[in-house]
Amino acid sequence: MARERSHPPSAACLSASMRDFGYSLETALADLVDNSISAGASIVEIICDVSGECPAVAVVDDGCGMSEDELLAAMRHGTNSPLQDRAPQDLGRFGLGLKTASLSQCRSLTVVSARNGTFCGAEWDLDRIDAADDWILSILDDEDIRGLPHAERLGNRGTAVIWQELDRLMENETGDRRNEIVNEKLEVVRRHLSLVFHRFLAGEIKGHSRISIKVNGHEIKPFDPFCKNHSATQRLPEEIVRIGNAEVRMQPYILPHHSCLSASEYDVYQDRSDFISNQGGYIYRNGRLMAWGDWFRLVPKGEATKLARVQIDFPNSLDEAWTIDIKKSRARPPLVVRERLRQIIHQIANRSVTVHRGRGQRLFQETPVPLWERYADRNGVRFAINEQHPIIASLEKRLLPEDADFLRMLLDSIAASLPVEMIYSDYSTRPREINQKSADESQILERLRNLRQVLYGDRVGDANDFLQIVRSTHLFDGQDDLVEKFINEAIA
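^ thats the sequence. predicted structure below, dont judge the formating
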């Protein structure tokens, strides 16, 4: 008959291994902010002070705080089972985040909490665990608590999580290089928190008042990935999928074309990455953004969906169905949600672009006299120069037949060698940087005179026709006043 025995893991080895679950500084701090929000905090301060002899990072909130028994439970690895029912507003999951997130960044984790003016504290120290190869937790007295950095920021209620022995934050650098590394990481933290908690920061979550998150005294502003307040943003009908007694809500958006954004708006969105990599589903658990920028292998990312975003909300009662990971940075939609999302994606793509099929069918005509034309046939889409354009037609009339043949060969060669992949790469990632115009005012006027001569010679021209031809060339985009002045003086 088999024998049974208790066979616990080595505390020293397991604690070292748990440091490498894959947390970054920003995801670790986000895990701590989750706890503050779950505790009903309205203000969360993140303090990073590496200038002194004892560098420390502290996360201080004004939440409900903990009694000593609650604090000791919170410091235990695996406080709650992930299968346990949680309060609807709870952002926790495994009961590991406080410990694994913190110890991924430091070797000493101290938590001090206050409730009704009564303070308690406890500390995990990896060096102590290594020496004893046992889970030795230090319970702090009042004198210990008074000696902790930033613990004085606590009022009559709230919690302070304090990291010391920051072996990973500064990467063994010193001086200016250390400060540079820390500042770069804090900027990533600000950007991450402004996105992950943007609905809490904006006061959009029912049952939660608006929260304030500060990093070294600077308040974080929410970053809305859906550009909801812009008049050109399209909000499509919301879809609801029911799983048991719970609802998954999917709200599609189509962002404005970059030409509809102001320079400052465009810079804000482009600075977060290019439009194509940002497209996809944005998954929120209890209002907290967990994963984003992914179509979950339902469709590839591309131009048809580059401006598409789908806000997907689910409650924590569906955690098991969504296979949430410990860092709360990955979630996979259940099958029924993926199938409905697939349909939504196709609707978005149809809304974004119109795909025409047919042999040699013209797909657009941007002006009455386009210089370029786009066609689709069974072999795909092709671009061609419009040989009926007035400039080309006028030039062809002036050429001998053999020279006209050379002209057509030149135009066909230009169309065939169009650097489509290069244009696509540049335009999809940096559309505002594409600039085909480099002429000054004197060059523009010279081009207008040459264009008039090519079209009309010594004859009187038609002002409206000339204006349409001018627009078709795009040589004079953004120079409307100069073009109008020339037409009034030389054509009309």
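Residues 354-366 have pLDDT under 50 and may be disordered.
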